[in-house]
Amino acid sequence: MSAQQTASRRPNRLRALCVLLVVAGVIVGANLLGEYLAVLLEVEVTPRNEYIVHRLVMISAAAYVVLIAIPFVPGVEIALSLMMVFGPKIVVLMYACTLFGLSLGFMVGRHIPVRILQKFLHDLGLRRAAAFLGEVDAMDEAHRLDLLVARAPGAWVPFLLRFRYLAVALALNIPGNSLIGGGGGIVFVAGVSRLFSPLYFVATLAIAISPVPLAVLIFGERFMPGIL
After folding, report:
1. What is d(CA 74, CA 69) in angstroms, rounded to the nearest whole number?
2. What is the pTM of this model?
């Protein structure tokens, strides 16, 4: 083995640190953008500013789709701000944007090349984790699930793996899920795992995110104080 090949197999912690800093910068920037848009949306709609507000709503909705797909970014603040200003008539748009944004995060995780994740783990010095990721990726979904269940620690992890769609739906709705990455982090990890069918996963998302929009549509503005 040449010296160049040996060097290429050594962990590059400086590169891993740079990646972590870039990711942290994106998360911080996305959070600041979300807060800024939420403040901008606290406006009173009048005939004079209706066109400007409409443009702002469209821009905010597009930004919301991207922000909610990013791990550790509470983009839902934008949706709540829009519902606070426009009430139930904006709920369908926010529901569609939420579904599209979370589906986008899932598909990004599902299609990110495994070799990139392996290289990152290797640079962190997690060689066994990188090797295990490559081993798992080479399997089909059924064998991958069996291997993960067999190696999972404790009693709850195998249960959550077998009922993974239900686990994702519950995780998206538990208070404080921002500590585990928020909606964007949850769907990204689900995508990376390659344990979910895209069709079934999107259907799970559609059901999991529906309680609040349905409640707002049914009860109208009477329900708004309970979520704002």
Report:
1. 10
2. 0.78
